[in-house]
Amino acid sequence: MFERAKPLWAAVAAALVVPLLPLPAAAAAELRVISWNVCGEAGGQRGDAGYCPYRNEPDKKVEQLAGLVSRHQANVLLLQEVCGAAPGSHLDLLKAALGPGWSFARADGARPDGRVDCRGSLEGDLGLGIAVKAEITGTTVTQTLPPDPTGQSGQTLPTLCVRTDTWAGTRICTTHVLADPADPRRAQQVRNVKAAASAGGLDVVLGGDFNLFPGSAELKPLSSAYEECDSLGNSRDEVTHHAWTSGKHVYRKRDHIFATRTGTSRRFTWCDADQSLMDRTANEPDSGPPNGYSDHAPLIGYLPGT
What we know:
Residues 1-27 form the signal peptide. This is Endonuclease/exonuclease/phosphatase family protein. Residues 34-296 form the Endonuclease/exonuclease/phosphatase domain. With 306 residues, the chain is an alpha+beta fold. It has a single domain (31-303), classed as Endonuclease/exonuclease/phosphatase (Deoxyribonuclease I, Chain A, 4-Layer Sandwich), CATH 3.60.10.10. Helices cover 16% and strands 28% of the residues. The chain is built from five helices and 14 strands. The chain has helices at 8-16, 58-72, 90-98, 186-198, 220-223, and strands at residues 31-37, 76-84, 103-108, 125-132, 136-143, 158-164, 170-176, 203-209, 227-228, 241-245, 248-252, 255-260, 270-273, 299-303. A six-stranded mixed sheet has the order 3-4-2-1-14-13, with helices on one face. Strands 5-6-7-8-12-9 form a six-stranded mixed sheet, with helices on one face. It has a two-stranded antiparallel sheet with strand order 10-11. The radius of gyration is 19 Å and the shape is globular. The termini are far apart.
């Protein structure tokens, strides 16, 4: 008997997941950064276009975040589509999971209807979150999405930045860029993100869901000014997003971590996209359980400290 050939998408999906290898130990003052769009806001059932796994189970996502922190000895978390500012929210549960020594900052990001409340059974408000294993000494929230020229959308997509006592010369930021490629505001939003992150002339670590692919002209203000994690080596530009579109698997890189050191280059010492946590199943009503915890993979980068 001949074995039936696997469909191409199955081979691609299998190739995305690589064995977990031993990681180098953290050096003193090293920045170990995890950026992840956890798709944590409620909405979407299996088979719907807006489906994302475990949206109404924040404890499952927080468990994975805590596991990533432990595995990588991470000290910076940059989170998108996360709920906070209330007991039982993602960030509240994450505080308990990470324990003492961590500081948190957050910023609301409103949906197009102007609401920020996390829907379904979730607690808290929707937006961005930063967690650092240090004391936050300053927090800046900049609304970097230009207003809708039609006046019909109340959506806001801020850039959230913090400064800390441990990395006093570094501004640590996260953001979320518009997903619609036809929206004319995306190019200006990226320029606004660049201005917000680089304010003050400090070193910069900037991670998030940019909804822009490597080589995109709209991404140039960042990619030409900063070094990008995962842009060099044999595993460059790894996939960070899976979509089920018109009955097909679509894999793209939408998430990025950028960094710079004032007056010189700042070289990432290690980078990876943990695709084992990205749901790669077909999204049909009868597809069964997901095999990941978000439609995005977390992106991890190690940097020398200042």
